[in-house]
Amino acid sequence: MHQKIDLLIEKLLKDFNEVKTMQELNDLKVKYQGKKGVITELNSAIKDIPATEKKDYGMEVNRLRSAFNEGFENIKLRIEQELINKKLEEEKIDISLPSSKRKKGSKHPFYRVIEEVEDLFVSMGYDVVDGQELEDDEHCFRLLNYTKGHPARDAQDTFYIDSEYLLRTQTSAAQSRVMQANTKKGPIRVICPGKTYRRDDDATHSHQFGQVEGLVIDKNISLADLKGTLEIFAKKLLGEDTKVRFRPSYFPFTSPSCEVDVSCFKCGGKGCPLCKKTGWIELLGAGMVHPNVLRMGGYDPDLFTGFAFGTGLDRLAMFKYAIPDIRYLYTNDVRFLKQFDRKDEEYEIKY
Amino acid sequence: MKLSINFLKDYVDVPVDAITLGEDMTNIGNEYDSAGKLLNVEGLKIGKILECKMHPNSDHLHLCKVDVGNEILDIVCGAPNAREGIKVIVALVGAKLPGITIKKGKIRGEESFGMLCSIEELGLEHKFLKPEDVEGIAELGEDAIVGEDPIKYLEFDDEVVDFELTANRGDLLSIIGMAYEISALYDLPIKEIETDYTETDDDFSKTFNLEVETPNCSLFYAKKVENVVIKESPTWLKNRLIASGIRPINNVVDISNYIMLEVGQPLHYYDADRLGDTLKVRMANNNEKLTTLDEQERTLSSEDIVIADKEKAIGLAGVMGGLSTEVEADTKNIVIESAIFDPVKVRLTSKKILRSEASNRFEKGLDPKKTLLAIHRSCYLLEKYADATIVGGLAIYDKSNKEDRIIEMTFEKIRNVLGIDISDKDVLDILRRLRLDTTVSGNLLSVKVPTRRQDMQIKEDIIHDIGRFYGMDNIKGKKMVLPVIPGHYDKFTRSARNKMVELGLNETLSYALIPVNEVPKYTTDEFEVVKILDPMTEERNALRYSLIPSLKMIYDYNKARNEKDITLFEIGKSFYKKGGEYGEHLSIAALMTGNYMVGLEKKEVNFYVIKGVLEDLLDYLGFENRYHLEEGNVPSELHPGQSAVVMVDGQKAGIIGKIHPNITAKENIYVFELNLEMLSKLSHEGMKYKEISKFPNVVKDVAFIMDKNKKSEDIEKVIQKAGGKKLVDITVFDVYTGANIDKDKKSIAYSLTFNDYEKTLSDEEVLAIFNKIINEVTTKCDATLRDA
């Protein structure tokens, strides 16, 4: 019997080896375990086996059954795996084909720079004020110490609406409004970014452009405070190696006044076409708020001092994104706009 | 301001070259634009033509043998005046002239070792050239020494620094003012200049009537000189004018310009014989006529200051003289005017008539202590260079304030404003260099500011100068210590921008100035258009109200560049006048056309696509369930059947729709615009957790056939009412017109979601609600159930 079962197992393994499909495997199951299957028949023959041999006989048949069951499961797994592999093979795709992209929106570089400036100054406790683009002569000029017929008005060719109203030529106009609005005459820390207008249109000037004005009024504010603040501003916007240089200058609404240059971020100060080989780029006008301006804003210049600064947003955007011509900012070619679709570079400054 | 270094050296010995001076001056706030030699030439020598023959292969070239001292050069020259014996300017091989470097060459077979130069070729500005400077080579005088530098011989060996001065420093528009500044810069002495002359025993003031009838003239001196000889000025004087950018005319005119450059006081010379014995200063009469020096008849107004004789205006004060009393070639006797007029009046008149070197100086404010100096210096020069006899006496009108200003401050104030630790001693040293007298009493510093420094009005101006000379760049930046207060910005607008970007639109930045006829478009709001008084172009003559005209222009620009899928938005101000008041508010507008991605599906933009963008924006900004679209009063630029007014909290907040086919027949362009400022003032809800059901949703679909004009909105209201609390969502998933549906009908399919927060809904419960819904809709809405 033992020998017979050995032979049957040998035969069984041979049968399993020839199985290719699930159907053949099922046929084999019928052959061995069906109603007239080999194992079924051996099993039913047990009744004719003498009692003393029944136990051995039974063990031998079980040996065959186990061999079948084991083999069956193995082959089944093998065939299933083959089917999966075949399916995977069929499902293989060309990963280099283009993706189903969502349409990307974009934020205009002008507003990107405004948001960056806002974030920086808000983090230092400044409020952002909007100011009026349609201003009056009083706030845009007179309260800033530009008397009627002041020669410094020449630099700011103005779009007038009527004899009193105009389009603001400088965001400095917000200074006088902020001072007036502060009825408690307490300390002030604001920036005002926005659009400004001058009757001037050429390759380097647009009749509409952007400025950001900063104003701090408090007790004991000094020119050194202004410099420290602008150093942070320049480093944060243009990179941590940026240096700041003060040159004396003149504005009617500040005294002392200065022009502020930053080291050329393109050449690092070595000299290149961008900085006209000087290593420096003129970026801001600034100074200590003129006592007349403080007085007209309701502040006592003997108690309060302050600083103010202003810079061009278009230039900042042009520098930041290496845009060669100011007019690109206002042309709104979709191919230009779509480029500004990701996060900005961040400069970490250690203090 | 072009500063001639030779001129400056009359007053102060500048220790550096022009470029260094420019740099050093820039550091103290006087920015320079350019600096360098008056004539940018190198490698020139005086030569003498020893021999001059015609070139064998040319009808105009000459072959010259030129003695340049150490050698004799063969030079080919084309100038018609080249001839034996004359002394000339030779550019040697290697010489540099503006734009060219001289090389050894062969001209039509003949070798040439250099070039003979005209004055033009030395790079003298065109306005200074005389015909002979252009037509041929320069012929130098007999006294020219062969082998020496012709630039020195011609007295062109000067350097010039061109400054761009700030508006407050009128004092630097003079050599004397510059000398003060530069002497302070390098701590140098200032030299005295001569003003001595002899005059007759007459008293001019007795025979001349000077009448000033306006407060706009504070100081006026008139003096007479006689028997002037009008001729060419000496070379040094002409060249100083040239270096300063002024064209020499004749000795008399040149002297008046020279004084203006030197002293900063513009002068006017009248032909005394044509002037008569009276000079008045008054305001012009309205419509008074005056023919000015340039032979143009000007119509004046009562805002213009004029100089007049007994009857009529003869000059525009500070701006331009009149033709009738002009100094001409035959003028013998002169009345000199040296005066101070109101800067603002001169400025306004000169803006109308002519901006000149003189008006520029009047505008910036003059030093009343220089007015008489200018007369004396003028007499000195006229006596010396125009053989003038100076008549004794002086006509004077003087209401000027010549007192020095005393300004007091503490040393502490100086240190506090600049934020530096400068010692009292260093402050005093800077003021000494600036030649400002000081007295110190305790901590109090008193500074006497002379009238020449009109820019120094208050202590801060003096502190500015202390900063300038301390070196503004030597100030160390400080990190301010201020109270910790959070800053604020307009988060609402920024959220709107971020949402639009997230929705895939491209932000634009366009001009607020647009053509006036475009302003009333795309809005039904009532307002007056804000126009520009003096526009640059008709394309930009008014302030926009709606942003849509700008977006439409941007669309046109991009369409012309074959862009098809255009989705834009802009945030900007809307300007208007209402009830006589000007105003502005922030708006947001969008324009969409072509394909747009809805989820991951490419979809051609239609009304519902842009409506989706609008709703996404409003939901994000916190207005969910508080807005709806209303038909009715929409701008005529929109398709009447595909547009609506956007209502938020029952108020009109904007418009949405398709651009009218009359405007864009072929393209389907959709727009919306919202008053962002109004929205930002409404309450906007943030997010709060809402309870979610623990039990599964049951979804059932249903479709109704209804009249084409029926609004889905109305059906949805009935469905919601019938469905009650257990109906938690209604979504339209299909709208169908066409086969199997009557022509004037449409089918809308809804997906209804049911849920009960207490238990799992049974099929029977859902079916009961579902049937109630069908029943209500079919009976109340004139709709029928569409069979599945």
Describe this structure in words.
The complex is a heterodimer of chains A (351) and B (788). By secondary structure, chain A is an alpha+beta fold. Chain A has two domains: 2-88; 109-337, Bira Bifunctional Protein, Domain 2 (BirA Bifunctional Protein, domain 2). Chain A is built from twelve helices and nine strands. In chain A, the strands form two sheets. Chain A has a seven-stranded mixed beta sheet with strand order 1-4-5-9-8-7-6, with helices on both faces. In chain A, strand 6 and strand 7 form a beta hairpin. Chain A starts with a helix and ends in a 14-residue tail after the last helix. The mean pLDDT of chain A is 90. By secondary structure, chain B is α+β, with helices and mostly antiparallel strands. Chain B folds into six domains: 2-36 and 160-186, Phenylalanyl-tRNA Synthetase, Chain B, domain 1 (2-Layer Sandwich); 42-153, Beta Barrel (OB fold (Dihydrolipoamide Acetyltransferase, E2P)); 204-398, 3-Layer(bba) Sandwich (Phenylalanyl-tRNA Synthetase, Chain B, domain 3), CATH 3.50.40; 406-474, Phenylalanyl-tRNA Synthetase, Chain B, domain 1; 491-681, BirA Bifunctional Protein, domain 2 (2-Layer Sandwich), CATH 3.30.930.10; 698-785, 2-Layer Sandwich (Alpha-Beta Plaits), CATH 3.30.70.380. Chain B contains 21 helices and 41 strands. In chain B, the strands form eleven sheets. Chain B has a seven-stranded mixed beta sheet. In chain B, a hairpin with a 4-residue loop joins strand 18 (305-308) and strand 19 (313-316). Chain B is elongated. The N and C termini of chain B lie far apart (90 Å). The model of chain B has no long low-confidence stretch (mean pLDDT 93). Chains A and B meet through helix 5, strand 1, strand 4, strand 5 and helix 8 of A and helix 10, helix 13, helix 15, helix 16 and strand 27 of B.
